[in-house]
Design brief:
- This protein has eight helices and nine strands.
- The protein is α/β, with parallel strands linked by helices and 318 residues long.
- Strands 2, 3, 4, 6, 7, 8 and 9 form a seven-stranded mixed sheet that branches.
- Helix 6 packs parallel to helix 7.
- The longest helix has 68 residues.
- The termini are far apart.
Length: 318
């Protein structure tokens, strides 16, 4: 800018600039100088966003590190709480933590030998005893609803052990609030018929009344219509599954192991647990068992934990 002003000053004093090559060269040099000044200013301005981006990236890295630290601290705190809860409820070891729910649900098919005639053709709900997974997890399910032990609710919530309930209304109706507490703690309430009758001995219409009637009752009392159904005693026929499908049932989980207060029974020849096995137990107390529901859970968790398994949420895999 100073060079241009000097030229203007000299022209005012009467100096003449030739329009020839030398004059044109001077004008070109001046233009280049002005352009270079503009370029220098532009490069300075573009440098500032680079610094801002670096600062932003540094802050993001700090936030990520803080988040990772926070997650580690939360995991440590959660594990300490589990150890304390295990000690309180007299478990020899704290329950193992289940892995995160799979992003893709496994494909569920009817177990060989558990199908009914025209099972696939009629697109009936699959009947299975194990979830296909490589995760070292098992699933705990509790049937009927006879015993309503508040200690059981507290124990499961404090230990953070997931489970699924299959309810029969004739045992549940005297204390719906107990099962509402269970539902509020994250437990899914599913269908085990109205009156726990032997289903193959009933007509299709009677079976449908038992299943659809319990669907309606659970929806009315707990606000959500089940998608899982377990037939009483694990007995069913083609009409059972056809009726279940007509009532909105999507799957029929049975079990591969059964838990009591003093032992575990197994369906398989090797008498052992396997990844994805469904465990059955019942809402029972001292009138039926030699112990309480917390006693039963201690027996289950000793077996499950000693074998290196975690209890996962069944609905996460369906």
């Amino acid at each position: 800018m100073q060079l241009v002003r000097q030229k203007e000053h000299r022209s005012q004093q009467g100096h003449r600039y030739a329009a020839g090559p030398r004059g044109r060269f001077g004008v070109a040099v001046a233009a280049l100088l002005v352009a270079s000044l503009g370029t220098a200013c532009g490069s300075g301005e573009s440098a500032r966003p680079d610094k801002a981006e670096k600062a932003k990236a540094a802050k993001a890295a700090e936030a990520g590190a803080a988040g990772a630290l926070s997650a580690a601290e939360k995991a440590k705190t959660a594990q300490q709480a589990r150890i304390a809860a295990a000690k309180k409820w007299r478990l020899l070891k704290p329950p193992l933590t289940a892995p995160a729910a799979p992003k893709e649900k496994p494909e569920i098919e009817t177990r060989d030998g558990f199908e009914v005639y025209d099972h696939e053709e009629d697109e009936l709900p699959p009947v299975f005893t194990t979830i296909p997974t490589e995760d070292k997890v098992v699933f705990l399910t509790v049937d009927d609803g006879s015993e309503k032990d508040p200690e059981f609710l507290r124990m499961m919530q404090e230990l953070k052990i997931p489970y699924t309930a299959f309810l029969s209304d004739y045992l549940v109706r005297d204390n719906y609030p107990y099962f509402k507490q269970m539902q509020a703690a994250g437990v899914t309430l599913n269908n085990h018929t109205l009156n726990h009758r032997y289903m193959p001995g009933l007509s299709y219409e009677k079976q449908r009344e038992e299943i659809c009637g319990q669907q309606d009752t659970i929806q009315k009392q707990f606000g959500k219509r089940p998608t899982l159904f377990r037939p009483p005693y694990g007995n069913y026929n083609h009409d059972t599954l056809r009726a279940a499908k007509s009532c909105g049932i999507k799957a029929v989980p049975l079990w591969n192991a059964e838990a009591f207060t003093n032992r575990m029974d197994y369906r398989e020849w090797d008498r052992d647990l396997h990844p994805g096995d469904i465990i059955l137990t019942h809402f029972r107390g001292k009138e039926d068992w030699k112990g309480t529901m917390p006693d039963m859970i201690r027996q289950v968790m000793k077996t499950v934990t000693d074998k290196g398994y975690a209890v996962a949420r069944l609905e996460d895999y369906l």
